[in-house]
Each structure stands twice: as structure tokens, then as C-alpha cells.
Amino acid sequence: MPMRERTLLLIKPDALQRGLVGEILARFEKKGFKIVGLKMLKMDKALAKEHYAHLVSKPFYPDLEKFVTEHPLVAAVVEGKEAVEVVRLIVGPTNASRAPAGTIRGDFSNSTSRNVIHASDSKETAAKEIHRFFKPHELFDYSVNVESYLYASDE
Ligand code: IDP
Ligand code: MG
């Protein structure tokens, strides 16, 4: 059985500013991932330093921190088959200029820094990042029943 997994997405401030949130979320829904958590938030500096701890010593970190804390972003948890790995494939590589067409970064960005979306890079990271952005009661365990909409009673 393929693994049911959850992973964290951050639809970054550049995507929100550019009105791309709906299109980006739609790609995951159409692929077969289920949204199990969704919120808008503004990162503060402490949260940025925690989330990007692996980059704090890089020369571009001050710009990255300013970018992610300046405007709100949309955080989501999606669930599905091998979600961590497959979501990263849909997102594309970090340098969006070189990201293949058809990936989110390849289609919506030409920048390494303003690359529209974050996705967890491993199962271990996903668990930590989901916990960082969502409280347990903000995540929903629900089953999808399309038949109940196709045959809804309208009386
Ligand atoms: P990822 O987002 O593809 O996992 P990471 O290496 O974890 O890539 O970097 C996190 C974020 O930091 C990137 O998505 C991008 O916004 C920013 N970043 C990474 N490397 C660079 C760089 O060389 N220049 C500017 N920004 C960068
Ligand atoms: Mg990363």
C-alpha cells in the first residue's frame, strides 16, 4: 500500500500578492491531494528564523526574512499518496528560472528567492513543519464522498 502522508505548503507572500493562491491550491486538489488544514498568517522574525534555520548564516538570509515577514502568506497541509515526495515534484526545484514548465515554480516564477511556494523536503521535516504552523485541532480528518454530492437530495 502506498503511504498516506501529510506535508506542509506555504504559499509565499509573492504568490498572495500576485493573486495566485487559488491556482496553486487547485493544482494539488486536481492531482488528488486533500486539503486537511488551511490558514492565512503573517510570519514574525522568530518564526522565520526557526523555519529557515538551515539558511540563517547565508548572505541572502536578511532579504529572505524580510520577504517572508513583510506580507501574509497562506499555509496549508495536504494529504495523499506519498505526499512529501510528490508535492516536491509538483513544486519544482528551488531556482524557479530553471524549474521545468509544468511545475508550479516553473510556471509561475523566474526567481530563486521569490519562488511562490514552500514544501517540506522530507517526512521528518514535514512532521516538524506541520507542528510549527498548525495546532492539532486545526487539522481535519475527513473522508471524501463524491457520491453524496452527485445524488444529493434537493427536496
Ligand atoms: P526549497 O524552498 O526549494 O526547499 P531551500 O534551500 O530550503 O529551498 O531554501 C528555502 C528558500 O530560501 C527558497 O525557497 C528561497 O526562497 C530561498 N533561497 C534559497 N536559496 C537561495 C539563494 O541562493 N538566493 C536567494 N534565496 C534563496
Ligand atoms: Mg527547503
Brief overview, please?
It contains 8 helices and 4 strands, in the order E-H-H-E-H-H-E-H-H-E-H-H.
Explain this structure.
The structure is a single chain. By secondary structure, the chain is an alpha+beta fold. The protein has a single domain (5-150), classed as Nucleoside diphosphate kinase-like domain (Alpha-Beta Plaits, 2-Layer Sandwich), CATH 3.30.70.141. Helix content is 40%, strand content 18%. It is built from 8 helices and 4 strands. The protein has helices at residues 13-17, 21-31, 45-51, 61-70, 83-91, 104-108, 123-133, 147-150, and strands at residues 4-11, 34-41, 73-81, 117-119. Strands 2-3-1-4 form a 4-stranded antiparallel beta sheet. The longest helix has 11 residues, at 21-31. The protein is globular. It starts with a strand and ends in a 5-residue tail after the last helix. The model has no long low-confidence stretch (mean pLDDT 97). It binds inosine-5'-diphosphate and magnesium ion. Residues 55, 60, 64, 94, 112-113, 115, 118, 121 line the site of inosine-5'-diphosphate.
